[in-house]
């Protein structure tokens, strides 16, 4: 005795339950997958944008530093005779020119060979005549080459970096150096280059020197601080360029792009809060959800409609089958509209007992679509499949091929050996083709391969792999044989019918023969 609830589970309810569950599960999974994909896309695009932005600013900073060193070099060439002549007015005029014309330096200083300041601009600094004995001055005097300093506090109390260039006499005697300074905690060239790119959503830029010290930050109070335990800073100061997700000093998850300024051993970091990058995601997903719901409801309606249409013939057959002992049972069953294959088969089985006949028909159908020698599909099967693809407008690639010099094989070794070569070739090709591909013997030594959903370049690669596989195989009693292959794609090589694509592939095959055989040619139709 079956449970009462089980008797109520008919095909209509089962189809509806299964289909609705499948649709809702697919809907939920699709929505989640879209959300994750959009989220990762936003993160990846933000990281890449910040990396490119940091690299662009690093290149601009590099160019600015190089231009500045060039200006210092030019000034150094002018200062040599002035230092030798101790022409103080001319020296003061040059430092004023260099500071005012470049718009880069906050101050410019000239040192002689014993580190004494001989000229300074602006004069309000009142440093003229002062002698420095700092590590920076000793480094400049000892190395006697262009330098970019680490941040330090000057005699006047300014936190700054210095760019210096040595001054040599005509006889290469060292005379001193000229230095331009950039005040890090005041308006400077770095703030004018980088500060204008500060956004209001929490995105910002900062610059660190080789010692991990901040030399630019949108918050002036941070300048001079050292950054420790930051993977982005560690990588950029090792000369690396890239993008990472990192926590900043406030514990905010940031999407950072970074690039080095090699000549100064600096690193530029552009970063944006992850929350800002993902701010529009929820609104975007809500819009997607609104767009998906109408289609989902329409699909559910179609499922209900088809569930009703599918289950109706089987329900009618089941009801009438219970009345098989009635005289009008045959006419009642004959009157049922079994509109799809399974219902029609069941109806015919009940009426005529055609099970065995159907098996025989299936066998005959298979025999009529199979090549007897190779077991491959024949031209009739090929035409049926082409008609189906044509009706579905399904993209596919076509490879036509035949055995080179096959007539010579038949003439020299006999037709039996030629048949063995064809059978062996069919076996080789079965091993190489994709499971969803269809392989046909189109006649004699000619074969055809249909590759649904395969692009032209992929088909060309498959054809080349087949050619190499066959060329490397030793055929019994014959040795090695080669193939000529033509490749075409639908709808790339035809817009109306697949027949045109077959002609295009055949033309490519003939072209392969014309080129000397044993090659793959892509159709140019």
From TrEMBL:
Its main location: membrane. Its EC number is 2.7.7.65. One of its GO terms (cellular component) is plasma membrane. It catalyses: 2 GTP = 3',3'-c-di-GMP + 2 diphosphate. Pfam families: dCache_1, GGDEF. Keywords: Cell membrane, Membrane, Transmembrane, Transmembrane helix. It is found in: Cell membrane. Coiled coil: none annotated. GO terms for molecular function: diguanylate cyclase activity. The chain crosses the membrane at residues 291-310. It is a multi-pass membrane protein. Residues 394-525 form the GGDEF domain. NCBIfam families: GGDEF. This is diguanylate cyclase. It comes from Aeromonas encheleia. The lineage of its organism: Bacteria, Pseudomonadati, Pseudomonadota, Gammaproteobacteria, Aeromonadales.
